[in-house]
């Protein structure tokens, strides 16, 4: 090279006049952000639903719905305003969920009790459980005593619910009286360190 090299010229490709990174694909003002290298994220997720409907000979309907969901994520990024990786932040998440619903419904039009009275009913049972495990790290730099910090934790939850509804129809369906109830029990456990 002929003459001295100004380091600002070397970094000009990464920065705009306001100090934000502008390198395509890196972040900055033209990419909607003001951080350094945005890093990478790997996400693998899937979910499914299995539904069954069965109607008995008397018109009573039984419904079952089973659901699954899963998410695995691994990522890393750098949060400093620099083209160099000096604040590395790795992270990982693992999430699983399962749910089950059972419902029974009266025949269409209800069940005749007398000439001018019929009853419609519905009852539901529901259960769901989920679990989340995660960890993340942050490198604060070599100038402090603890250059890398980690957080680790998990969360688990269970949801139990039952509901019912009963409707009395009178006077050729011109008058109706409905009663119902619901019970819900939700428990959640969280641990972070």
Attribute tags:
mainly beta; 1 helix; 7 strands; 3% helix
Describe the structure.
The protein has 193 residues and is mostly beta strands. Helices cover 3% and strands 61% of the residues. The protein contains 1 helix and 7 strands; from the N terminus they run αβββββββ. Strands 1, 2, 3, 4, 5, 6 and 7 form a 7-stranded antiparallel beta sheet that branches. A hairpin with a 5-residue loop joins strand 4 and strand 5. The longest helix is centred in the N-terminal third of the chain and has 5 residues. It is elongated. About 14% of the residues have low confidence.
Which structural class best describes the helix and strand composition? mainly beta
Could you say which overall geometry the principal axes of the C-alpha atoms support?
elongated
Strand content: over 45%
Task: Give the N-terminus to C-terminus distance in angstroms.
Answer: 52 Å
Q: List the secondary-structure elements in sequence, H or E.
A: HEEEEEEE
Average pLDDT metric: 78
Number of strands: 7
Tell me about the largest β-sheet: 7 strands, antiparallel
* Poorly predicted residue ranges: 10-36
Helix content: under 10%
What is the number of helical segments per DSSP (H or I, 4+ residues)? 1
Global Rg:
30 Å
């Amino acid at each position: 090279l002929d003459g001295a090299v100004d380091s600002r010229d070397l970094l000009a490709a990464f920065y705009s006049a306001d100090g934000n990174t502008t390198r395509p694909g890196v972040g900055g003002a033209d990419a909607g952000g003001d951080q350094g290298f945005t890093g990478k994220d790997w996400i693998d997720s899937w979910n499914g639903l299995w539904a069954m409907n069965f109607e008995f000979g008397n018109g009573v309907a039984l419904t079952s719905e089973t659901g699954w969901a899963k998410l695995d994520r691994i990522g890393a990024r750098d949060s400093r305003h620099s083209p160099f990786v000096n604040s590395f932040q790795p992270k990982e998440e693992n999430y699983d969920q399962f749910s089950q619903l059972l419902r029974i419904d009266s025949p269409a039009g209800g069940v005749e009790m007398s000439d001018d009275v019929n009853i419609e009913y519905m009852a539901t049972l529901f259960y769901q459980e989920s679990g989340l495990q995660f960890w993340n790290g942050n490198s604060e730099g070599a100038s402090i005593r603890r250059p890398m910090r980690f957080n680790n934790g998990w969360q688990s939850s269970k949801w139990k619910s039952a509901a019912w509804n009963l409707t009395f129809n009178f006077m050729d369906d011109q008058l109706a009286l409905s009663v119902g109830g619901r019970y819900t029990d939700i428990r959640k456990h969280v641990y972070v360190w």
